[in-house]
């Protein structure tokens, strides 16, 4: 566990050159099948493999001893692991058990995600030192199997998003990338995430705001000395106890706990700012809540307005009933910065209420977007009579010429059949089967045989037409993204001060008689605005409420 | 970051017409925004971003005239009024189905509810009785920043009462866009710059790279702050592995470089945290050298931080720092003798004359394809003659300075070229019109295992061909018969990249108003924009056979025979495992 060891950077942020023990690694089986695994030198679960800790996949078994220490990105061969007899250990039976293997593989793999969780729990419970004499025998050296491999990759928020154990709906890469982009989540930002859920966004956000670990990385995130340059930090809120504890374990396993401060708290009821902690100083906020408008009242510069903030709300009593008396309201927002907010809601009604509340609370530049993303697959579309009997191709005629040739051939054979009554011999259904030009006179069987033989010579990977199409299952709607900006608070006194400074300067300049004061910055005439006005049907109604 | 407006930075003004104007805020200048009027730069300096200002009518009182900050409540007055009306309607119970905010008229005889429509509306340009001349005259008289004028225009519309609520709202908004003398000041950052160029400038210059695609590039490339990354030397000691270093091929004028630099925290000169640094930059550019005001403005929000930050940082000379950072770097490979990074000027960075205090100065490295592939042909890589000290002393100071400058330039080029040729980079980002095959052929070997490759293209075809290069069948054919790449069949080594994927994303904007929620009706066409992503892997030595064939083949499928006929062939045995790699 990260706490008990010397500090090591998160493998998400700096994986180092090789896969190390106790680091999270992604075993890449296929594009959509990746198994995140915590690499262990010892098998804490005592699963009984001779090789020590082993991860079984459908492509073979991989003792961790073959994974630890290899450069990231390496292709790793499977090992011949005795997966069958370990339950019967002691009986002296050491049969290979190859036949049972396949079933086992499937199960293990499905349980891939659960397995990590189990591992974590096991690790927590076992307070044993790595070298337990007598208990853990020295692992046997792994023997390379004849087939099977995986690639071992360093974890990224993207691979974690595709392989994480689902607890709630996941914010996928196209959405979170755009959200973080619009939230201006940059190194050094302090981001609030409410509704941590499965932790997909949490990981991406931690990467986005990361600009160094706190100076005492082993300690849990503690109040920083105020003079330190601001370090990026994610404050993640989750009110569901189990999800909270799962995410907590994950974050510590992933080396992200110094960067992500996970709060177990219901933000709608009790707000964001923990009472006994220094101000969060957030500059960006991501709300993934069922009723984000209830949380918005806690995201203000000063004490939340007690007058009902959203008149169209049918239940105007919800605020202030659950929250404690707001005697000492402390804003979780950074007072010296504009605040960017994103609310992630699947339903348009949620969006409408959220926006209505945002307007009442004085947020600017409110806009609503929706991201639709798709993955494309490329393939070679092979069409033609030469493809007969092969898989994944279209064995119909590729051109008119090919069709005509075939028709002519069939015609000729029919003629021959009638001319030489019954002498056709080995036709074997030839009357119905098509044939390419060179194949005339062959039976279907012979023809197919010939095609198959010819296949070895062909470079099918560059034959046919290259086409591109969307993957079969599309996510056509994930959620609406509501963005808004809360400008820095600017009082009349601030304005007076600024006016004095910049006004004085100007006056002084003019008194000196400098001509520079009269420099004119011309901005090209606003021709586009004129033409916009004429487009009646497409007028965007929100004047201020557009994109920034 | 981007808290208040500093002198000489670039800002964007959002005008009532929803257009953006990007300009540099030079103190003591007058800024004209066309028909909306003019204002003094000093009236927005030192103020926070994201505020909406109103240009006040000119009065004799020079203190009062200028700008007024429009409170949010006023911005949304129309909308919230509409909401109240709507909800009031529900409470009354008089109006059925009023929830959607549509205005109805109740027909009294049988209690039927009839919606007011535009059935009776007659299109007549004469409905507006006020002439353009009259409007101009009113404008000259002073219009209460456009509000009074708009009210008058509405008053003089003879058929206003025939309009439905929506039509009226649209009409008012149209007039507001034309006559309201307001603007909002926004910071120029990567999202804004992208949006601005895509919607109002020349999208072709940035390869029509939409914001959502740029965001996607940023995520998949796994670019992040790498300043705390360890510096690991390779096993054979020939170079570095990782260290938060990324390779970029950018033909978007520096937009992709800017976006990645933003993610690495090296795009903006330090501002809110250490205002003194920015003041320093400003200082350099401030001709009259009067920085009292600049400092004063910063002090508002950074009381006391200035001194400590300033004293901690010795001011290094420009030459010693340039392109010298060991970690958290971007290396741009460019096709011309100089990289085109012109868009970085909006972030106060000029690649031909970098300011020493800008983080890009040390963290952005540039190398040409010639230097990368054949450094001996590049004049800059050839070591200039070493002059012994005693001869050097006899040089005139100008000549000596010149000598040192040449030496430093050579040292810089040599170190960057050697570093890039040694490879070990954490990722590759490509947005280029060049053939991606040729780029990847040379750049992929420079990546460490596990590095991400992202190639952006406005069109899908180049990426489809690229993905096809890494197709399963081609890969297996290559494994079977490895040849020197590139060749006709294998333009790239198909075993070096894993999980090649093409994807795209598109953002749809919605209008959300009481009773009038729908997606915007127009959007931008043109290039769709796609990215190709893959992971650099290190193939195992020797032949590796796959296993598993989990996709059920139909019994009696003739294809089975085909597999049986070439059992020895790993092309076939591998299909099961690598089917969807």
Automatic annotation (TrEMBL), chain A:
GO terms for molecular function: tRNA (adenine(58)-N1)-methyltransferase activity. It holds the Pfam family GCD14. Residues 38-57, 78-141, 299-332 are annotated as: Disordered. Its EC number is 2.1.1.220. Residues 306-317 have a biased composition (Pro residues). GO terms for biological process: tRNA methylation. It is found in: Nucleus. Residues 148-300, 339-485 form the tRNA (adenine(58)-N(1))-methyltransferase catalytic subunit TRM61 C-terminal domain. Gene3D superfamilies: 3.10.330.20, Vaccinia Virus protein VP39. Residues 95-105 have a biased composition (Basic and acidic residues). It is an enzyme of class 2 (transferase). The keyword Methyltransferase applies. One of its GO terms (cellular component) is tRNA (m1A) methyltransferase complex. Keywords: Methyltransferase, Nucleus, S-adenosyl-L-methionine, Transferase, tRNA processing. PANTHER family: TRNA (ADENINE(58)-N(1))-METHYLTRANSFERASE, TRNA (ADENINE(58)-N(1))-METHYLTRANSFERASE CATALYTIC SUBUNIT TRMT61A. This is tRNA (adenine(58)-N(1))-methyltransferase catalytic subunit TRM61. It comes from Lasallia pustulata.
From TrEMBL, chain B:
It is found in: Nucleus. It comes from the Eukaryota. GO terms for molecular function: methyltransferase activity. Belongs to the TRM6/GCD10 family. Keywords: Methyltransferase, Nucleus, Transferase, tRNA processing. Residues 304-323, 565-581 have a biased composition (Polar residues). One of its GO terms (biological process) is tRNA methylation. InterPro entries: TRM6 (IPR017423). It holds the Pfam family Gcd10p. This is tRNA (adenine(58)-N(1))-methyltransferase non-catalytic subunit TRM6. Residues 292-323, 557-581 are annotated as: Disordered. One of its GO terms (cellular component) is tRNA (m1A) methyltransferase complex.
């Amino acid at each position: 566990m990260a706490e008990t060891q010397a500090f090591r950077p998160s493998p998400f942020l700096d994986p180092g050159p090789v896969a190390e023990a106790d680091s999270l690694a992604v075993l890449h089986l296929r594009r959509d099948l990746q198994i995140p695994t915590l690499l262990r030198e010892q098998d804490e679960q005592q699963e009984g493999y001779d090789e020590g800790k082993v991860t079984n996949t459908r492509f073979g078994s991989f003792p961790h001893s073959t994974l630890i220490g290899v450069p990231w990105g390496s292709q790793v061969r499977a090992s011949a692991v005795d997966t069958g007899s370990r339950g019967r250990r002691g009986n002296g039976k050491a049969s290979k058990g190859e036949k049972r293997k396949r079933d086992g593989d499937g199960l293990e793999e499905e349980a891939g995600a659960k397995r990590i969780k189990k591992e974590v729990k096991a690790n927590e419970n076992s307070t044993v030192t790595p070298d337990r004499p007598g208990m853990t025998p020295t692992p046997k050296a792994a023997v390379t199997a004849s087939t099977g491999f995986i690639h071992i990759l360093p974890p990224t928020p993207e691979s974690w998003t595709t392989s994480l154990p689902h607890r709630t709906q996941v914010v996928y890469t196209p959405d979170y990338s755009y959200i973080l982009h619009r939230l201006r989540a940059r190194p050094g930002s302090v981001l609030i995430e409410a509704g941590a859920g499965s932790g997909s966004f949490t990981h991406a956000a931690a990467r986005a705001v990361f600009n160094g670990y706190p100076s005492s990385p082993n300690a849990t995130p503690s109040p920083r000395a105020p003079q330190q340059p601001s370090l990026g930090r994610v404050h993640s809120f989750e009110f569901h106890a189990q999800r909270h504890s799962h995410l907590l374990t994950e974050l510590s396993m992933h080396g992200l706990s110094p960067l992500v401060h996970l709060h177990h708290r219901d933000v709608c009821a009790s707000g964001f700012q923990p009472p006994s902690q220094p101000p969060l100083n957030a500059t960006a906020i991501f709300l993934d809540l069922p009723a984000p408008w209830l949380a918005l009242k806690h995201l203000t510069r000063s004490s939340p307005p007690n007058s009902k903030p959203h008149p169209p709300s049918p239940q105007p009593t919800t605020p202030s009933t659950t929250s404690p008396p707001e005697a000492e309201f402390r804003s979780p927002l950074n007072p010296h910065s504009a605040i960017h907010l994103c609310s992630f809601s699947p339903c348009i009604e949620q969006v409408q209420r959220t926006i209505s509340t945002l307007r009442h609370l004085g947020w600017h530049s409110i806009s609503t977007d929706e991201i639709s993303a798709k993955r494309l697959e490329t393939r070679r579309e092979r069409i033609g009579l030469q493809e007969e009997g092969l898989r994944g191709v279209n064995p119909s005629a590729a051109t008119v010429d090919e069709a005509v040739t075939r028709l002519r051939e069939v015609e000729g054979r029919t003629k021959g059949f009638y001319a030489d009554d019954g002498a056709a011999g080995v036709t074997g259904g030839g009357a119905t089967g098509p044939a390419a030009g060179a194949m005339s006179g062959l039976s279907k069987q012979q023809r197919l045989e010939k095609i198959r033989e010819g296949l070895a010579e062909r470079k099918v990977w560059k034959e046919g037409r290259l086409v591109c199409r969307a993957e079969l299952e599309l996510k056509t709607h994930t959620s609406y993204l509501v963005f808004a900006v809360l400008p820095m608070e600017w009082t009349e006194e601030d304005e007076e001060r600024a006016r004095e400074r910049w006004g004085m300067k100007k006056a002084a300049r003019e008194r000196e008689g400098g001509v520079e004061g009269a420099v004119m910055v011309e901005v090209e005439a606003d021709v586009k605005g004129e033409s916009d006005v004429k487009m009646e049907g497409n007028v965007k109604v929100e004047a201020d409420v557009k994109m920034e | 970051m981007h808290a208040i407006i500093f002198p000489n930075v670039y800002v964007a003004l959002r005008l009532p017409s929803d257009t953006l104007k990007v300009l540099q805020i030079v103190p003591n200048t007058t800024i004209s925004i066309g028909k909306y009027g003019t204002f003094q730069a000093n009236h927005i300096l030192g103020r926070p971003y994201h505020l909406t200002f109103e240009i006040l009518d000119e009065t004799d009182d020079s203190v009062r005239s200028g700008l007024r900050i429009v409170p949010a409540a006023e911005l949304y007055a129309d909308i919230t009024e509409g909401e109240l009306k709507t909800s009031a309607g529900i409470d009354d119970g008089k109006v059925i189905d009023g929830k959607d905010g549509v205005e109805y008229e109740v027909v009294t005889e049988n209690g039927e509810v009839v919606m007011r429509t535009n059935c009776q509306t007659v299109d007549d340009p004469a409905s507006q009785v006020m002439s353009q001349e009259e409007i101009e005259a009113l404008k000259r008289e002073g219009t209460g920043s456009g509000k009074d004028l708009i009210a008058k225009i509405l008053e003089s519309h003879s058929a206003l009462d025939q309009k439905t609520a929506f039509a009226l709202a649209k009409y008012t908004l149209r007039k507001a866009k034309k006559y309201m003398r307001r603007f909002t000041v926004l910071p120029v950052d990567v999202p804004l710059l992208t949006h601005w160029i895509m919607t109002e400038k020349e999208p072709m210059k940035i390869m029509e790279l939409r914001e959502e695609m740029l965001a996607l590039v940023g995520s998949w490339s796994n670019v992040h702050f790498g300043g705390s990354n360890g510096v690991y030397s390779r096993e054979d000691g020939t170079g570095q592995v990782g260290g938060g270093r990324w390779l970029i091929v950018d033909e978007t004028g520096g937009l992709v470089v800017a976006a990645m630099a933003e993610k690495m925290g090296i795009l903006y000169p330090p501002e809110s945290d250490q205002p003194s640094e920015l003041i320093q930059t400003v200082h350099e550019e401030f001709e009259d050298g009067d920085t009292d005001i600049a400092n004063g403005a910063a002090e508002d929000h950074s009381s006391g931080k200035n001194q400590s930050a300033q004293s901690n940082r010795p001011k290094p000379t420009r030459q010693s720092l340039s392109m010298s950072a060991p970690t958290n770097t971007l290396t741009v490979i460019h096709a011309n003798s100089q990289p085109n990074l012109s868009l970085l000027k909006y972030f106060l960075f000029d690649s031909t004359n970098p300011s020493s205090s800008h983080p890009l100065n040390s963290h952005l490295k540039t190398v040409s394809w010639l230097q990368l592939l054949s450094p001996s042909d590049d004049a800059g890589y050839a070591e200039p003659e070493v002059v012994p000290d005693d001869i050097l002393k006899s040089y005139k100071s100008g000549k000596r300075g010149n000598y040192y400058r040449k030496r430093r330039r050579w040292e810089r080029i040599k170190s960057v070229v050697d570093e890039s040729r040694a490879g070990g980079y954490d990722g590759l980002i490509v947005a280029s019109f060049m053939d991606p095959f040729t780029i990847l052929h040379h750049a992929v070997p420079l990546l460490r295992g596990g590095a991400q490759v992202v190639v952006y293209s406005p069109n899908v075809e180049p990426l489809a061909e690229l993905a096809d290069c890494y197709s399963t069948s081609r890969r297996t054919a290559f494994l079977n018969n490895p040849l020197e790449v590139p060749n006709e069949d294998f333009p790239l080594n198909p075993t070096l990249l894993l999980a090649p994927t093409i994807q795209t994303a598109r953002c749809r904007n919605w209008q959300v108003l009481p009773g009038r929620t729908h997606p915007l009706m127009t959007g931008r066409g043109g290039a769709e924009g796609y990215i190709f992503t893959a992971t650099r892997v290190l193939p195992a030595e020797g032949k590796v056979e796959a296993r598993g064939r989990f996709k059920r083949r139909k019994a009696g499928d003739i294809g089975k025979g085909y597999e049986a006929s070439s059992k020895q062939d790993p092309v076939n045995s591998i299909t099961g495992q690598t089917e969807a790699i």
